[in-house]
Amino acid sequence: FFSLKRKSRLVLCHGMGRHGALVAMCLAFFTDTFVYSSITPFMPHFLKVHYGEDSAHIGLFFASFGLGAVASTFFWSPLIMRVPSDWVILVSSTVGFLAACVFLLPFHLSLPLLLVARIVMGMASMGTCTAGMVFLANLYPKDMLGRISGLTQMSLSTGLLVGPAVGGWLYEYHGFRAPFWLNAGLYAAQICLFLVVVPGTHKSQTTPLSKHSAGSGYGTHLEADELPAAVPVPSPRRLSRQLAPQDVLLRTATQVDVLMVGCSVGALASAASGVETALPLYLKATLNFNSDYTGYLLALISLSYGVSSLPAGYLCDRWGPGLMTPLSSFFCAFAIPLMALPMAINAPVWPDLVCWQAATCALFGAAQSAMAVCLFPLLMHLVQTVEPEHASVVSSLVTNGLFAVGLTIGPPLSGLLMQFFGFVWAMVGLSGMLFTVTVVTTVHRRLSSKE
């Protein structure tokens, strides 16, 4: 049923086994974003009432998730290169389950303990997302990566969409610990499903290699007439000495093409998190929106993001990530300042201002989804030319690491622009940042291709 390559633990499944593994990974991605977003409706008020914390400390609590994800990159990067990705997924899921259980302890919890648990959740999320993309990239052929990326992005956006509503309802009617019971249950279901559909305990002492698949970094179906003699695989200890994970990651990530596309990942994350920070303040000041209506508009971004993921993945496979990435990036940079257009032309009392904001939020969600879906396949293509043996690992680490950096930078950058220049120029600044990175990256890739 499985054909396993011990060196990188490629799982070449047949029939429904491969799709079962995809379902398990989609549940894992959904769980990560659900756990991240389920506490947003009630945790600020809870911390203020029970711990007397001000806004700065509450902001630090929420930023700790991203900080844990960024810091753990240095831990996960060598581990994923030395240990099979399915093992890493199980370890990170177990760590996330234990961190969620901290909130279920039956005594008064100190704020530092909650902060540490939140940081550990961020670390677990980084491990699951990074190893999960490696696992799927090795599981499916190259020409399906766009659609697979679209499915994973849809799972992530669904968690962001459902998390706040379910978490707020559970807190309101069943108390503080109810959302965390659900979080722990999702982690447990994720672990059990992964153990059922991906038996990662099988071992193979030899590895048949195809002349087309050797060192490709992608899971490839092998033809019987193409199989040479079995190649012995070195022991894990000997293999770990040969890989030099830090050197591999540093050498590949510092390539100009890879670095520039990585900057696009960070710029997208900064722009998205910056918009979600500045938009509620603008809606409160302009339309006197309360948290419910603001949440509906933010949920509309996530809904549009999820609905657009599969079509974007199909277009990415059909047209190629090299073309789709700049198109979606320019589309995303164009959509951001449209949110501030009514204020820019001094018309803050438009009768249809709410409809305008809803339309621009949906447009931004679709553009953001298209760009996010195409970036991972593009990075895979670039890394393949530099480090083919570890293409999926390095691509996933660069994508998730720089995305976490962008999530950490975006909110304070947006807040500073709002404070000194107002909402309009904050949106123009975020759009200009994304537009500049896209232009520089596109021009560089065009010039490089001509050479």
Reconstruct the topology from this structure:
Blueprint: E1 2-5, E2 10-13, H1 17-37, H2 43-51, H3 55-71, H4 73-82, H5 85-102, H6 111-139, H7 145-174, H8 178-197, E3 206-207, E4 231-232, H9 236-243, H10 245-253, H11 256-287, H12 291-319, H13 321-338, H14 341-344, H15 353-386, H16 391-450
Antiparallel strand pairs: 1-2, 3-4
Helix pairs in contact: 1-6, 1-7, 1-8, 3-6, 3-16, 4-16, 5-6, 5-8, 6-16, 7-12, 7-15, 11-15, 11-16, 12-13, 12-15, 13-15, 13-16, 15-16
The mean pLDDT is: 73
Biggest sheet strand line-up: 1-2
Tally of distinct domains: 2
Distance between the termini: 46 Å
Helix tally equals: 16
Give the helix/strand class.
mainly alpha
CATH superfamily of the largest domain: MFS general substrate transporter like domains
Describe this structure in words.
InterPro entries: MFS, MFS_dom, MFS_trans_sf, MFS_Vesicular_Transporter. It is a multi-pass membrane protein. By secondary structure, this protein is mostly helical. It contains 16 helices and four strands. The strands form two sheets. A two-stranded antiparallel ribbon has the order 1-2. The chain is globular, with a radius of gyration of 22 Å.
Features:
3% strand; two-stranded antiparallel ribbon; Growth Hormone, Chain: A; membrane; 451 residues; transmembrane helix; transmembrane; disordered N terminus; mainly alpha
